[in-house]
UniProtKB/TrEMBL annotation:
This is BNR repeat-containing protein. Residues 1-19 form the signal peptide. It holds the Pfam family BNR_4. Keywords: Signal. SUPFAM superfamilies: Sialidases. It comes from the Bacteria.
Length: 438
């Protein structure tokens, strides 16, 4: 009888998923929001997405999805790293079509600390990922100046205009955004540089950064003063890297690399937080066909009132518009307990090929669902259509894979939560849906 009931439950779940054309990539996987790109399109002739996650037992897994056949492959990169969704891998396709991935412990401890790297031995084949290499981007001089050694997140990018130099960013020395570079496809790395810091060094202050690269000459940074649970007026800033310097949105220089670090207020202000409008956190940045940064972020007038915003820089000012009220946090707060992550919104992702389209997670009834938003006037007005509805599980942290090209299928990936109490206490899966217009 028990077996029949389990079979019936599985059939019902399959019908519900199939009714929404949702496919399961893994039954056991989670990711955070600041280690990217967590999913990329490769140049495989069949159309292929490479992505990865952290299992509920702390394994780090890479996966590929063949968009022509629907077939998937998986490779465990590291067994029992730690149970923490901050550790998800980020991916980069190298010029010779091998795939590089990087990930870290969450901060690190006596059990492990540093950046972990794997590279495929064969082009585009995640089954051939190498053994893990662990390294610590630091120097004695940097540690003496910035005091704190910690390694969280990795964000690797390649710039073809710099002879395919690789840049990798993370929250490392000083608890601040750092970067390192490689000119040999990741075999060796430069010493790190701290990019952004508080004016008076505070090793408990940690700016959060989302990155976007055109793959040619620029890496765009969207960042905050710090964490919204620590910064009562957490604002949003923008700059970009190009030609050995960091620049504001209007093209004026902030600092050369040898003048780093700079302070958040040195960059372009996207949103200045006030007690009335609320502190903020960031979700995505892409560049539109005119080369303008397009940003998605959240304001919190209160911790239970999450408001999604969309803003485009038109060359002179930010066109900043409200998208939708998304509800409150998605973690499932235990009864009688105070929520530890009140600013964990469901999440937004911008289509990098058409930034007038966003996908976002918001509360519909008592469940987090995914919707599509379309704007033709820089965010003033929106057409909103459902991607999921009547779900039994929360749908959160949607992402459109990076390096999407014309002709690629339009695929959205996201997390479904059977349980998400905390970033160290979860039981989630990764699903995907082909949104290509038919």
């Amino acid at each position: 009888m028990k077996i029949r009931l389990l079979l019936l439950a599985f059939v019902c779940l399959s019908v519900k998923l199939n009714a929404q054309n949702v496919s399961i990539l893994t039954e056991d996987g989670a990711w955070c929001w600041f280690s990217d790109p967590r999913a990329i399109y490769t140049n495989d002739k069949n159309g292929q997405i490479v992505t990865g996650w952290v299992t509920k037992s702390g394994d780090i897994v890479a996966a590929s999805l063949d968009l022509k056949s629907g077939k998937t492959a998986q490779k465990t990169l590291y067994t029992k790293l730690e149970v923490d969704d901050h550790d998800n891998p980020a991916f980069l396709q190298l010029p010779d079509n091998r795939i590089l991935t990087q990930y870290t412990w969450h901060g690190g401890s006596k059990d492990g600390m540093g950046v972990i790297q794997n590279t495929t031995l064969e082009p585009l084949d995640i089954r051939t990922f190498s053994d893990s290499v662990i390294f610590k981007p630091q120097t004695p001089e940097l540690l003496a100046k910035f005091k704190r050694e910690t390694y969280t997140y990795a964000n690797p990018f390649l710039l073809s205009a710099e002879n395919n130099k690789i840049y990798s960013f993370g929250r490392w020395i000083g608890f601040k955004p750092n970067f390192i570079t490689s000119t040999d496809n990741g075999k060796t790395w430069s010493d790190p540089k701290v990019v952004i810091t508080s004016k008076a060094l505070d090793t408990n202050n940690r700016p959060y950064v989302k990155y976007y690269s055109d793959g040619k000459s620029k890496i765009h940074l969207l960042f905050t003063d710090g964490h919204p649970n620590a910064e009562p007026l957490n604002s949003v800033y923008y700059c970009y890297y190009e030609k050995d310097a960091f620049w504001r949105a209007d093209g004026t220089k902030i600092a050369n690399i040898d003048q780093l670090p700079f302070h958040p207020s040195d960059a372009t202000v996207v949103y200045k937080a006030t007690p009335e409008t609320g502190k903020a956190w960031i979700f995505d940045i892409v560049i539109d066909p005119k080369g303008r940064p397009v940003v998605a972020y959240t304001r919190y007038p209160t911790n239970e009132n999450h408001q999604y915003y969309y803003t485009v820089f038109d060359g002179k000012k930010w066109n900043d518009h409200h998208l939708i009220a998304s509800g409150k946090w998605f973690p499932q707060t235990p009864e009688g307990k105070k929520e530890r992550e009140e600013n964990y919104s469901g999440g937004l992702t911008i289509d990098p090929l058409d930034p007038s389209i966003v996908y976002f997670s918001h509360e519909v009834g008592n469940v987090f669902e995914i919707s599509k938003g379309e704007t033709r006037d820089l965010g003033k007005t929106w057409k909103i259509t459902p991607v999921t509805r009547n779900s039994e599980l929360d749908n959160v942290r949607p992402v459109i894979p990076r390096y999407k090209k014309k002709g690629d299928k339009n695929v959205l990936l996201w997390m479904q939560n059977r349980k998400y109490v905390h970033y160290t206490d979860y039981d989630t899966r990764i699903v995907w849906k082909d949104l290509t217009a038919r």
